[in-house]
Amino acid sequence: MIENLNPKQSWALLQDNPAAVMIDVRTAIEHSFVGCPPNSIHIPWKEFPDMQLNALFVAQVEEKVSDKSIPILLLCRSGVRSVAAAKALEEAGFEKLINIVEGFEGALDEEKHRGNIDGWRFHGLPWEQG
User: Fold this and answer.
1) 63 falls within a domain
2) How many domains does the chain have?
3) Residues 6+ apart with CB under 8 A from 122
4) What is the pLDDT of residues 78-123, one digit of tens each?
5) CATH assignment at residue 17
6) What are the C-alpha distances in Å from 85 to residues 104, 126, 128?
7) Is residue 105 one of the residues assigned to a domain?
8) Which residues of 32-67 are buried (b: 16+ CB within 10 A; e: fewer)?
9) What kind and span of H or E run contains 114?
10) What's this model's pTM, rounded to 2 decimal places?
């Protein structure tokens, strides 16, 4: 089952459950230059420039998280790619999957800028520059 939590709920879960893992499914460029939550594991779902699906995604997650009952939180830019990644992990037998709605940067505002409405950074949660 895939659960949806907002960034604040996701941060609380990570604090309350030290076994939980956050996987940042954004591209390497997003992860490095836009920033990322501390201790997140970067495994891209798709990769720049052609945004091809990472065919090794599930295997790479399995390398990092061998216990399929551990909660895995999935983060992308706005909460869309992370849903697709969660579905792939669900099909592979992972049991506790959490999509972080709003993502790291959040939705576009009226001027087509991210980070002004919602998202991990908008809520003032910890992050670092890569």
Assistant:
1) yes
2) 1
3) 7, 102, 106, 115, 116
4) 988 999 999 999 999 999 999 999 999 999 999 999 999 999 999 9
5) 3.40.250.10
6) 15, 23, 23
7) no
8) eebbbbeebbbbbbbeeeeeeebeebbebbeeebee
9) none
10) 0.94
